[in-house]
UniProtKB/TrEMBL annotation:
GO cellular component labels: cytosol
Gene Ontology biological-process entries: phenylacetate catabolic process
Pfam families in the record: PaaA_PaaC
InterPro entries: Aromatic_CoA_ox/epox, Ferritin-like, Ferritin-like_SF, PaaA, PaaA_PaaC
Protein name: Phenylacetate-CoA oxygenase
Origin superkingdom: Bacteria
GO molecular function terms attached to this record: phenylacetyl-CoA 1,2-epoxidase activity
Gene3D superfamilies for the chain: 1.20.1260.10
Cited NCBIfam families: PA_CoA_Oxy1
Length: 325
């Protein structure tokens, strides 16, 4: 149905409608599910919201891995709540994507067979407890940077989902920072673990904003449609500027010898991540790509009997209802 839908809309972009549509966006009027929209707008949103939903769900895996091994009952309760929040974020976003005419099952199948992507950051392993702090601090921190402007995105259901999500994300970032602060202020061994986590998660976090603007394929059109509000490089810079003082406060060193404050620009200068690694991980060669997709496929297969049961129950109920009429 998804392929059909995209195909059948390929010819509907008449110039008058397009101009009307763009005028609405320029006037900050939200686009709602039943409004006319260009095929490219629908397609880009399905890709972006779907990819975002998948990231929330796959993002549960590296952290879920540590729920049973959290160092205290309090940390366990906090982590459990956070991982549960991510499931909720996935649901809001799948719901928003469904309003564009693609079903949740179709989206799931596209994730499971590799036609759709999720954020590459979740293809990196969480090796120890300090990593859980680093994920909350850096990964959720980078996610917020991306997501706060998306609250103003032009598509109504996406914008409303982002408003709810952002409320929870700031809590995620703070719990991560608090966990890593405890480590950084702990024994020399604990501090070393915190530093090692920062070393491993720094560049992958910078990659979360996507390739540099000059290499980013979708940027210009997405910005005109207000599907994207800031460029990748703008957001990356903002993240670096915000995070470096936080690392300094912890007494940790950002693993970039060229990092320094640039008085003239009013920003930090920093080294670009290794983009060949980024594209390699996207292609499926990251440390955990296979694990993540195997885990999601297993969950989908293991849940088949529940879906079958629910369907059978709904059918029976409907038959009883019809018989009674
Ligand atoms: Fe989230
Ligand atoms: Fe989060």
């Amino acid at each position: 149905m998804y392929a059909q839908m995209v195909k059948s809309e390929a010819t509907n972009d008449d110039p008058e409608k397009l101009a009307e549509f763009q005028a609405k966006i320029d006037a900050d009027i939200k686009i709602e599910p039943k409004d006319w929209m260009p095929q490219g707008y629908r397609k880009t949103l399905i890709r972006q919201i779907g990819q975002h939903a998948h990231s929330e769900i796959v993002g549960q895996l590296p952290e879920g891995n540590w729920i049973t091994r959290a160092p205290t009952l309090e940390r366990k309760a906090i982590l459990l709540a956070k991982v549960q929040d991510e499931a909720g974020h996935g649901l809001y976003l799948y719901g928003a994507a469904e309003t564009l005419g693609v079903s949740r099952d179709e989206l799931t199948e596209m994730l499971l067979d590799g036609r759709m992507k999720y954020s590459s950051i979740f293809n990196y392993p969480t090796l120890n407890w300090a990593d859980i702090g680093a994920v909350g601090w850096l990964v959720d921190g980078a996610a917020i940077m991306n997501q706060v402007p998306l609250q103003r995105t032009s598509y109504g259901p996406y914008s409303r989902a982002m408003i709810r999500i952002c409320k929870e994300e700031s809590f995620h970032q703070r719990q991560g920072y608090d966990a890593i602060r405890k480590m950084a202020e702990g024994t020399p061994e604990q501090k070393k673990m915190a530093q090692d986590a920062l070393n491993r998660f720094w560049y992958p976090s910078l990659m979360m904003f996507g390739p540099s603007d000059k290499d980013s394929v979708h940027s210009a059109q997405s910005m005109a449609w207000k599907i994207k509000i800031n460029t990748n490089d703008e957001l990356r810079q903002k993240f670096v500027d915000q995070t470096v003082p936080q690392a300094e406060y912890l007494g940790l060193t950002v693993p970039d010898p060229d990092l320094k404050w640039n008085e003239e620009r009013g920003h930090y200068d920093f080294s670009e991540p290794d983009w060949s690694e980024f594209f390699d991980v996207i292609k499926g060669n990251g440390p955990c790509n296979t694990d993540r997709l195997t885990a999601r496929n297993k969950a989908w297969d293991d849940g088949q009997w529940v879906r079958d049961g629910l369907l059978a129950h709904a059918k029976k109920k409907r038959a009883r209802h019809l018989a009674a009429e």
